[in-house]
Amino acid sequence: MDAELTLQEADMEGSWTLLSWMASCLMVFGGSLPYVPQYQEIQRRSSSEGFSTVVCLVLLIANILRVFFWIGKQFELTLLLQSVVMIITMFTMLHLCCNVQNTNRVSTKQHRLSDFDFHNFWKWSAFEDYLIFCFGFTILCAVITFLLLDYALFVEALGSLAVMFEAMLGLPQLIQNFNNCSTKGMSVKMVLLWTAGDVFKTTYFVMNESPAQFWICGSIQILIDVVILLQVLLYNEDTRPKLG
Known about the structure:
Layout: H1 2-30, H2 35-45, H3 54-72, H4 77-104, H5 127-148, H6 152-167, H7 171-180, H8 188-207, H9 212-235, H10 240-243
């Protein structure tokens, strides 16, 4: 009887370990999945209009900061790996957007980082400029973190700053939709996957007792996702007459 009970406990423990491993894998790669339909949409339309590349800026800054937060306060390795995967994903999106924009460009004038033109910040023509900017930002963060790593207040502030940026993930897209009075060019599948992913990861943060900054960030993201989905309904040509 004891042997049978021990076997059942071992099976339950094995099942829980498998579920935990699957959840961790979903956390690492799940955040990047919403950009697959948006990537395909940009390729299909040969246009990046409708997708705000500022989303990439927000996520790059948030995840670079999170990497340094992990150095100061080593939480789950899963979240560190998630940041690395997201950084790679954002560079992939920017590379596609640069290629498409350069292909469709009518004017020969190009905007470069070296122009130091604030009005064209993050609207550069060359993908290399985005890499240089992020490399410079990473070096700056590394130096500051190295100097202040022993101060717990700095480490906590770094974590709060990282999740604050991440919480604003959908805000550039929301603002662009509002200014255009349209969601054309934006993948609705991307936003639906954002919402599902944010609900999942917020639950994950709470259950794993991650630092409070993470679940607060997740909650704000869910709220912004819902507003963007409401924009889809509001700006949809089929529903607009009914709403009017």
